[in-house]
Specification:
The complex is a heterodimer of chains A (110) and B (118). The N and C termini of chain A lie far apart (36 Å). In chain A, strands 1, 3, 4, 7, 8 and 9 form a 6-stranded mixed β-sheet that branches. Helices cover 4% and strands 45% of the residues of chain A. Chain A is mainly β. Chain B is mainly beta. In chain B, the strands form 2 sheets. In chain B, strands 2, 4, 5, 6, 9, 10 and 11 form a 7-stranded mixed β-sheet that branches. In chain B, strand 7 and strand 8 form a beta hairpin. Chain B starts with a strand and ends with a strand. At the A-B interface, strand 7 and strand 8 of A face strand 5 and strand 10 of B.
């Protein structure tokens, strides 16, 4: 089954910028883009962005997304301690008719 | 504000059926554009999409689970349900219900831990 690939971990310093990536193929990210979710330990995931950088109400402008071909990216500027969390990308796969998730990236803020 | 709450047994015996219900308040499961969905997460692992049902009754399931899973709706109770047959220890996870417009995962339940063990 096709999947979405995310790096397992990323570490950045306080107030730095982190860019997390998610790679799929033409049937998912390359076709309809990706959504991004943030999950703090012990809590349900929270939607950060869907499709083309649409942020739900209440999500900080420090979070932005982009896409280049089959790779989606989440950029977080001005890293804060509360940004330390697991981040998941998600996409609809039109050939499989399924929602896919990446394996998640653990972001550590040093 | 739309709220979702999962309910069901926290312990299921191997080979039996896992059954969970999601009760929605503050909104309707019949809202146009919204899918009622289930996602699970084993301890310390990532998210796995189980499937979804639309207001028309159409369903989509994860192919890896399709032979064992059924998602249904009860509009009179504003609830939707998950049934997973022939469970094994690998089905032990936190199960989340949610309402989503495509990839816009708008509303989530707090999650229900289901352990498969004898």
């Amino acid at each position: 089954q096709a999947g979405l690939t995310q790096p397992p971990s990323v570490s950045k310093g306080l107030r730095q910028t982190a860019t997390l990536t998610c790679t799929g193929n033409n049937n998912n990210i390359g076709n309809e883009g990706a959504a991004w979710l943030q999950q703090h330990k012990g809590h349900p995931p929270k939607l950060l962005s869907y499709r083309s950088n649409n942020r739900p109400s209440g999500i900080s402008e420090r979070f932005s997304t982009s896409r280049s071909g089959n790779t989606a990216s989440l950029t977080i500027v001005g890293l804060q301690p509360e940004d330390e969390a697991d981040y998941y990308c998600s996409a609809w796969d039109s050939s499989l008719s399924v929602v896919l998730f990446g394996g998640g990236t653990k972001l550590t803020v040093l | 504000q739309v709220q979702l709450q999962e309910s069901g047994p926290g312990l299921v015996q191997p080979s039996q059926t896992l059954s969970l219900t999601c009760t929605v308040s503050g909104g309707s499961i019949n809202t146009d554009g919204y899918y009622c969905s289930w996602i699970r997460q084993p301890a310390g692992k990532g998210l796995e999409w189980i499937g979804r049902i639309y207001i028309t009754g159409n369903t989509n399931y994860n192919p890896s689970l399709q032979s064992r899973v059924t998602i249904s709706r009860d509009t009179s109770k504003n609830q939707f349900s998950l049934q997973l047959n022939s469970v094994t220890a690998a089905d032990t996870a936190i199960y989340y219900c949610l309402m989503a417009r495509g990839l816009n995962f708008d509303y989530w339940g707090q999650g229900a831990l289901v352990t498969v063990s004898s």
